[in-house]
Task: inverse folding
C-alpha cells in the first residue's frame, strides 16, 4: 500500500481548524479510509516540512495487523499518509480528533469557544479549571487517564518507537464514555535506531536527566505525567516534587514514581508496569455514567480505591 | 534545580493615558489585559511561568494592576481614564521601585525570577524632555563588573502609535545591543491607531506564549515573535535601524 498521496488527490479542503508555528490543519472531507473515515490535512508551513522519515512512520502503521492498528488509532493521531509530490513533502493526513476530546466553554472575556481538552488542564488547580469552563476530574478519573496514557506509551514502545516530546499540549483527554487519553502530535516520534522525523526537542520543565531522547527518557516523562496529573495545583506543571503525590498514591505507586523520576534510566518502570499498576488500583472502579455527578475516591487498605459519597 | 516552585517571567505593561489617548485608543488599551486573560485561559499552565502588572501614566504614573497571576480568581481588572500629559519619566521611576519590590517578594515566596519585560505603549512625544532620560538610565543601567546600577534592570520593548516619535522610542529599546537585543514596534502611518493597539496586544500575547513555552530553568526569558509572524499594520525595528 502506498504511504504517499498527492496534494491534488485531497479534493476540496474544508476550513482551517488549527494552526501552529509549524503547520496549519484543515478538514479534508473528500478524503477518508475504511478504518479512519474522518481525516484532517496537516499542512506544513514553507520551510517547516520535515526532512524525511514520515514514510517510515506511515509504513509502520500500515504493516500492523488490523487489531493493533485500530488500537494505535484509538490512542494516537498517527500519520495515516504523507502528502507529497515531486516538489517534496507538503504535509500529512491524520485522523480527526473525536468530538469527545473537545470541550465547549466560555472564556473569561465572554467568548464561546470549543477547546481541545489538552492534558495541561489536568495539571492546574481543579477549581481554576472549573472556573475556566474545563472539567475538574476526580482522582480516579485522573488515574484512568494516566492508565491509558501509559497504554499509549507501551504500545508505541512495543512498536520500537521513541516518542521524544511528551508534554501536556501533545496529549488530550476525555472523561465521558470511559476516561482516556490520546497522543495527538506524533511527528516528533522516531523509530528506534533511526533519526527523528523532526528534531525531538524537549519542552522546558519536561526534560529528562539525559539529554538524548530514548525510550528511557519517555519513561521519565511518563513519570512526570503521572505526578503532575495526580497532584494538580499551583506550580503543578513545573514540579518534580514526589511528595506532592504522597497523598494520592499508595506505597507501590510512590515507589514506581520515585524510580520513574530517578537518574538510573534502567530502573525506570516500563509503561506496561504503570498500566498494570493502575489496573490493579482501579480494579472495581467503573467510570461514571455520563451526566451523573462525579464521585470522590479515596485510597483504602491495600491501595484499592473506595468511592466516597459527597 | 533553581527552585522547586519554578521560574517566573514578570511582564510590565506600561500604557500612556494622556489626553491624546481619549476615545477608541483608550478602549483598545482597556481590552489588552482581558485579551491576555483569554489567551492564558487557553494555555493555563503558563500561570506557572508568567506574572503581569499594568502601570498607566500621564503627568504621573500609577500601578493599576499590581504584579499578579492573571488567572487568579480575585483579580479585578482596572478601568482606565485619560488625564494630563505624557511624562515618560514618571512610569520609568515607578518601574524601578515596583520591579525591585516585586522581585524581592517573588524570591521570598520561593520563586526564581527571569529578567522582567516592560512593554511601553505611547502615542506621543514625552512632555518631560531632559528628565525622562535620566529616569531611563536609572532603570536600565547596570555595570556587572563594577556592580553599579540596577541589577534587576528590565528588557524594554517600546510600542509606538500615531504621534509617537520613532527616534525617541528607539532610544528606549533595552538592551539595544548584545546577544539578545530587544526591538520596538511601530504602527504604520496609515494604520488606525486603535487597531494598531489591538495588533500590539497580539504581539505581546505571542511573546508571552513563545517565552512561556521555551523558557527552561537556565534560559534568559523573554522572546519576541519573529518578524515574518507579525500581524499587518505594525513593523518592528532594532536600535540601529533607520526610518525612511
Result:
Amino acid at each position: 500500500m502506498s504511504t504517499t498521496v498527492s496534494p491534488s488527490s485531497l479534493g476540496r479542503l474544508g476550513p482551517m481548524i488549527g494552526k501552529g508555528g509549524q503547520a496549519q490543519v484543515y478538514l479534508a472531507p473528500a478524503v477518508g479510509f475504511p478504518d479512519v473515515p474522518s481525516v484532517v490535512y496537516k499542512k506544513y508551513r514553507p520551510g517547516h516540512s520535515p526532512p524525511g522519515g514520515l514514510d517510515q512512520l506511515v509504513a509502520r502503521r500500515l504493516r500492523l495487523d488490523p487489531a493493533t492498528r485500530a488500537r494505535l488509532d484509538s490512542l494516537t493521531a498517527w500519520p495515516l499518509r504523507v502528502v507529497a509530490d515531486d516538489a517534496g513533502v507538503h504535509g500529512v493526513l491524520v485522523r480527526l480528533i473525536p468530538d469527545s476530546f473537545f470541550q465547549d466553554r466560555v472564556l473569561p472575556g465572554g467568548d464561546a469557544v470549543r477547546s481541545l481538552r489538552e492534558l495541561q488542564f489536568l495539571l492546574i488547580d481543579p477549581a481554576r479549571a472549573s472556573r475556566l469552563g474545563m472539567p475538574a476530574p476526580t482522582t480516579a478519573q485522573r488515574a484512568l487517564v494516566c492508565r491509558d496514557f501509559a497504554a499509549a506509551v507501551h504500545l508505541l514502545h512495543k512498536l520500537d518507537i521513541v516518542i521524544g516530546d511528551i508534554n501536556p499540549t501533545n496529549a488530550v483527554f476525555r472523561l465521558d464514555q470511559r476516561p482516556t487519553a490520546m497522543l495527538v502530535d506524533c511527528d516528533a516520534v522516531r523509530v528506534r535506531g533511526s533519526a527523528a522525523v523532526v528534531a525531538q526537542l524537549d519542552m522546558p520543565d519536561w526534560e529528562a536527566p539525559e539529554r538524548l531522547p530514548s525510550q528511557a527518557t519517555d519513561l521519565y516523562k511518563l513519570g512526570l505525567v503521572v505526578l503532575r496529573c495526580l497532584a494538580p495545583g499551583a506550580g503543578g506543571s513545573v514540579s518534580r516534587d514526589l511528595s506532592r503525590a504522597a497523598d494520592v498514591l499508595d506505597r507501590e505507586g510512590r515507589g514506581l514514581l520515585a524510580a520513574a523520576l530517578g537518574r538510573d534510566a534502567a530502573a525506570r518502570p516500563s509503561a506496561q508496569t504503570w498500566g498494570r499498576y493502575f489496573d490493579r488500583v482501579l480494579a472495581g472502579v467503573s467510570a461514571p455514567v455520563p451526566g451523573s455527578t462525579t464521585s470522590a475516591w479515596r485510597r483504602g487498605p491495600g491501595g484499592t480505591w473506595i468511592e466516597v459519597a459527597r | 534545580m533553581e527552585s522547586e516552585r519554578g521560574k517566573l517571567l514578570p511582564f510590565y505593561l506600561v500604557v500612556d493615558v494622556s489626553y491624546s489617548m481619549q476615545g477608541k485608543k483608550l478602549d483598545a488599551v482597556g481590552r489588552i489585559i482581558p485579551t491576555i486573560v483569554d489567551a492564558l485561559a487557553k494555555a493555563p499552565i503558563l500561570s506557572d511561568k508568567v506574572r503581569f502588572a499594568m502601570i498607566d501614566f500621564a503627568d504621573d504614573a500609577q500601578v493599576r494592576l499590581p504584579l499578579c497571576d492573571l488567572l487568579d480568581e480575585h483579580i479585578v481588572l482596572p478601568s482606565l481614564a485619560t488625564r494630563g500629559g505624557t511624562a515618560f519619566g514618571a512610569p520609568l521611576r515607578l518601574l524601578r521601585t515596583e520591579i525591585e519590590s516585586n522581585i524581592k517578594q517573588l524570591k521570598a515566596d520561593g520563586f526564581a525570577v527571569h529578567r522582567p519585560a516592560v512593554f511601553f505603549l505611547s502615542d506621543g512625544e514625552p512632555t518631560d524632555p531632559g528628565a525622562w532620560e535620566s529616569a531611563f538610565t536609572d532603570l536600565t543601567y547596570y555595570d556587572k563588573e563594577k556592580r553599579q546600577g540596577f541589577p534587576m534592570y528590565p528588557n524594554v520593548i517600546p510600542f509606538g502609535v500615531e504621534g509617537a516619535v520613532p527616534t525617541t522610542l528607539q532610544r528606549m529599546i533595552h538592551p539595544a545591543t548584545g546577544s539578545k537585543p530587544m526591538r520596538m514596534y511601530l504602527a504604520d502611518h496609515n494604520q488606525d491607531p486603535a487597531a494598531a493597539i489591538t495588533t500590539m496586544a497580539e504581539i505581546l500575547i505571542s511573546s508571552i506564549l513563545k517565552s512561556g513555552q521555551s523558557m527552561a530553568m537556565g534560559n534568559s526569558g523573554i522572546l519576541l515573535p519573529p518578524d515574518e509572524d507579525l500581524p499587518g499594520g505594525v513593523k518592528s525595528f532594532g536600535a540601529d535601524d533607520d526610518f525612511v
Observations:
- Chain A touches chain B through 30 residues (CB under 8 Å).
- Residues 115-308 of chain A form a domain with the Transferase(Phosphotransferase); domain 1 fold (CATH 1.10.510.10).
- Residues 139-158 of chain A form the longest helix (20 residues).
- The helical segments of chain A are 54-62, 66-75, 120-123, 126-131, 139-158, 215-230, 251-260, 271-282.
